[in-house]
Amino acid sequence: MKLSAMIKAGMAGLLALAAGVVFSAANAATINVTRCVGSLNKTLSGQTVTFWGFGTGGMMCTGALPGAAIEVGVYPAGSGMSDTLNLTLSINGMTPQENAPYNGHTIHLHGADVATAEDGVPETGAAVGGDTYTWTPTSEMAGSYLYHCHVHTVKHLEMGMYGALIARPKNTSGVFLNQLTHNTATAFDYVQNYVFGSVDPAYHTATGDSTVFADYNPVYFLISGNQGLTTSAPAMTLAAAVNKKVALRLLGLHSVNGTFAVKDGSGNAKSFTVYTQDGRELSAPQTVTSLDVSPGQRFDIVFTTPATTGTWYPQITYKNLRNGTAYTNGTVYGRVTF
Amino acid sequence: MAAWGYTEVAGTPKFPGPTLTANEGDTVNVTVVNNHNINHNFLIQGVTTDTTAIAPGGNRVYSFTASTAGSYLYYDTLNSNINREMCMYGMLWVGPADGSAKAWTNGPSYSFQRMWVVGEMDKARWNDVAGSGGTVNTSVYKPNYFLINGQGGFDGMNNTATTIDGGVGQTALVRIVNGGQFAQSLHFHGNHVQVLTINGARQSSPYKKVDVINVPPLGTADVLFVLNQLGSYPMHNHTAQMETANGVYLNGVATMIIMR
Ligand SMILES: [Cu+2]
Ligand SMILES: [Cu+2]
Predict the structure, then answer these.
(1) Hey, do A3-177 and A190-337 end up sharing a CATH topology, with the first three levels equal?
(2) Do A215 and B190 touch (CB under 8 A)?
(3) What's the ipTM?
(4) What is the pLDDT of residues B204-260, one digit of tens each?
(5) Model pTM?
(6) Architecture in CATH of A3-177
(7) Parallel, antiparallel, or unpaired: how do β-strands B220-226 and B171-178 relate?
(8) Cis link prior to A253 (omega < 30° from 0)?
C-alpha cells in the first residue's frame, strides 16, 4: 500500500469513529476490495481459450471474466461526502504472468481522474508485484468506468484482465440509489453491465514482443464474457416487467468498432436514452436507436419496457476498424423479457 | 520504410506533411509541385474541392478563403488510398480572425496547442510494394505501424511537439486529424478532455467531457485539455494492436501528458 493510500484509509477510520458527531463524514464509506488473478478456460464456438481473470481467493485464485463489478458511492452535490475505494491487487507465486519485461500485473482505474501513483501504469512508475489503488470520486463523476491491467496491455487486456467500476449515487444516509446519477431523470428499475469484448485466440498464446500482436484477427465476440450468438442463446438475460426502466451500462473493452442497439424480435430498433458518457452526465440526454461504442468508451443508457409483454434484444455488432463492416458472428445478443 | 510526403523543401519529404496555418478571412494560396514519378493531388477536406491529378513535373495552385476556424485534414485522394497510406497527409488549422489564442472567435481560450496527425502503415503489403513500383492489393490492409505525428511509442512520448507538457492552470487545445484508414480510439489517462469539435461540427457549451475520443478515418476532433493536477500520464490508443510497432509494445499511437 502506498503512503497516500494509508493516510486516506487512516483518516476515514478516524472519521468513522466520530460517527454521530460529524454527520457529513459519518456515512461516507471506505470500500476495501481485493482482486487476485487466476487462469480460466472458456469454450468459444467449441474451442478452448485460456483467459486471465481478476478474481477472489487466496493462493489459488479463481479468476472471472469479466472480474466482478466494483461499486463506489457518490453523494449529492454539496453534501461534502465521498466514498474512498481502496482496490488491492494481490499477486503471488501462483499468479499467471509473462516473463520479464512483461512480468506482473497492475490495475488501471480507466476513466478515473486519479493521481499518477494510482494510475497503474508501469511506464509512469507503477509497481507490478501488487499494490493498492485509491480513488475518491465526487458527485459529478457518477457513471461507468473500468478497471484493467496495464502491463503489456496489448496482451493482458485481451487475456480478460478487466471489470466494471461503477460510481453509483448514494443518498446522504449512505444508501445506494437506483439512479445513474443524482439527476432523478436517470432512475431505473433494473440495471445490468454489458462489458464488450473481442477475442483473437492467437493473442492468448503469444507472449512477449511478437509480430502476432501487430495484427488483430478477432473471431469470438463477447458481452460480459459470454458469446450470445443467437437471440435464443443470449449472452445476457434479464427478467423485467412491463412499463419499467431498464438501465444498461455499456463498457467498451473490445479492440474493434462496435454499434449497440436494442431491437425487438422482428429486428425493429427501439429508442433508448444515453445519460452518461465516460463517467460524466451529458448536459442534454440523447435519445437514439443506435450508438457507436469504441474501445475504452463507456455509456449509461435507459429504455422503458412497453405496456404489453414481450422480449427485446439489446445487442452489439462488432465491426472492422477500417471500413466498419460487421465481423462474421460479430453480433452478440442480450435478452430482456417483460 | 518507403514513404511519400509533402514538404516545403524539395527533396526532404515530411511525414506527416507540413502544418498549414491561417486565420479566419485569410486568402490562402497553396502551390503544389509534383517532384515524384506518379500523379498526386492535394485536397483540404471541407475547404477545397479540386482533386485534379498533378502529373509528374507539373504543379497546381489551390486558392481558398479560410472561412471557419478549426482543424482540417489535407491529403492526396488519388490511387485508391495508396498515396494517403504512403503518408501524404497533414493538417491545416485556422484560428480566429484576430489571431488570438482561442478555438474560434469568442470561443474557448487556450495557453498552448498541440497538433496530432495520426495514421498507420502496412509496411509489407503497401509501403514495400508501392515504394518499389508494384501493385498493392488494396483489399487487404493489415497495418503494423501506428503513428502520431509520424512517430510511435517512446518517440511520440518524448517529442515535445506532441506531448501535452505545461504548468498546472494552463489549458491546451489539442487538434487531431486522422489520415489513416483505421478508426482511432484515443484514451487520456487520469483526466477528462472537453470536446470542442468533432468531424468539423462545432459543439456548444457546456462541452462534453470524455476520456476517450474516437476519431474515424479522415475524421477530425478538437479537444480542450485543462491542466488541473500535477502528474504524468499516458495518452494512448486503446485498440490492442495499435499500441505496438510490428507487435513490439509500448509503441504505436501514444504520447505523454506532463503537468508541472
Ligand atoms: Cu496484467
Ligand atoms: Cu484503459
Answers:
(1) yes
(2) no
(3) 0.96
(4) 999 999 999 999 999 999 999 999 999 999 999 999 999 999 999 999 999 999 999
(5) 0.94
(6) Sandwich (2.60)
(7) antiparallel
(8) no
